Amino acid sequence: MPIAFIPFTMHASVRADNGRTFRTDIERMSHGHLGSTPLDVLRSTNDQAVFRGAVPKGPHTATDASLARYLEDRLARENIHMNLCVTIER
For a tag site, which of 27, 43, 50, 72 has the least CB within 10 Å? Predict the structure, then answer.
């Protein structure tokens, strides 16, 4: 049975302690560092970025906040730390 993917929009902003690597982290995210969560950069600056992506459906896609926590945890495992605001497209 095919896996359903849930589309979302994600706004990322730099954390005060991580400003030097923000642009590099954006590039890493858009080049597949989240495995089964493809991300496209819609726009970015030195301190903010907007992505469009999709993630496999699961408990983490129940709410915008749960998906944001899930993505923050996945990014942290790749040593990428930023503030996220996620909107699931329903």
Answer: 43
pLDDT at site 18? 67
Which DSSP string corresponds to 5-58? EEEEEEEEE--GGGGGGHHHHHHHHHTTTTTT--EEEEEE-SSEEEEEEEEE-S
What is residue 20's predicted lDDT score, i.e. its pLDDT? 80
> Is 88 within 8 Å of 48 (Cβ atoms)?
no
Sheet holding 39-44, edge to edge: 39-44, 48-56, 5-13, 83-88
**What average pLDDT score do residues 41-59 get?**
93
